[in-house]
Specification:
Largest sheet: 7 strands, mixed
Helix content: 40-55%
Distance between the termini: 38 Å
Number of strands: 18
Structural class: alpha/beta
Number of helices: 20
Strand content: 15-25%
Amino acid sequence: MSPLPILVIYFEYFFTEIFKRGIFTLFDPHFIVRILPILPFLSNTLFGKSPPPFLFKSEDKMEKSLEKDRIIIVGGGIGGIILAISFQKLGIPFVLLESKEEGEKDDGADLALWPSSVKILRELGIDHDLLGKYSYPVNKVHMTKLNPEGNHAEGEDIMRIVDMEEVVKKTGEEFRLVSRRELMDSLYHLQKSCSVSSNLIVFGAKVLNVSEHSDCASVTVEERGTCFREINGRVIVGADGIHSTCRKYISAQYSSTSKDLIRYSGEVCYRGVSHVSEKHRDQLSLLFLENERRKEGVMTIFYGEGIRASWGLINRNKSRGFWWIKVKSSNSNPTEQEKKETISKWPHPFPLLYHSTDPSQLYVHAISDRVPTNKWCSERVALVGDAAHPITPNMGQGANMAIEDSFVLSILIREHYFVHAKDGHQEAFYEYVSNRYPHTRKVADESYQQSKVGQWTHPFLVSLRELILRKMPNSFFLNKLKKTNLWSSEEWIQRFRNLAKDE
């Protein structure tokens, strides 16, 4: 039921009592008790960060003609907001449902952008500063033996130097690191700058259930824990991560729910983003700046017994640093005491990095994925990013593939969506999976293999890993990196331009 009639009734009662008994009515306990039920509605309507519930109903916000064509995007992470931006530029109506409140910072520390996603971001119009001073081009990767006594730039045992400039040379772009928060802020700013009134982003909206019908798809939404809504659209795109509600629905359609389980990799990752200041030059800043002075443009990955780690700057203007350390663990959800014991065993500089990082920028999580599958779509529901193919973070490809997926799917939907009003989306879904599954499967398999090799603790296996890293022919190593990670976006960008010209 819409709260609008309730508001009218209570306001009528409120003003009638004021006129009858004067301003002192506001202090009457009986009057206060009577108006208590109105407070949640007033709060939601006057101070809420998403539209009040009576504006959220499709018949009040959009014409029926738009509702039957619009796409429901579930999740406002990287994949979801890329879909929203692409749909806007291609003239496709949508509603995006995001469980976080507006302005609530997105979790996450560092992430990598390969050339394909950088080109897509440029095409969509991302802020130049993000790819300029707020990202960090990596020219070399040093694969280094971890010293349990402490790790200093001048005494590192480098097992292999990977020339990333050579890996990406023919793409015309660099391999970059960037802060997730910086990327998300830039994407939401871009979306707002090109938004149209028929499209809607609803924050504080948790999707509880997904359903399909002969002529539409629906989601049941819990808005801020108080209101329950059913939102209709032509199709649903799930960009809701590894714990995807949309994926659960699709798995049930294929009767594969019992097999489609989250797979713990055997590692827990501790990571953070640190503030760096050239002006104040505190102990933490000096650590990052000295490391950068010695190894500019270099990302170092340390390998130890059941442990891998990295740290360095994450942007060109030297204001942010990143660090992460992956620890082999039989417990995917360590207690606080277990965390303290683990951190106490870390070699320099990782305990300093951990304790010097603002708690709001610290993240501890189990590294998990799912067994790869090509069942990303049902009749009216499709998946992108981690909802379709969650992977372990060993190839720097999670955000990258979410950007690629969303861009490709938006193009295919625009090419087929309005041509065949009844089932054009199904052709788009089929081509989407055919184009994206081979690449994502290759990345997922390689990333899982890297995760297991990185967890080796037996002295013989550790020695074998070091021997492979030191002696593997460089041409073989670089070709494998290229074959696994490089995906060409040029054709898709041209198709996007051709479609966008018509809007």
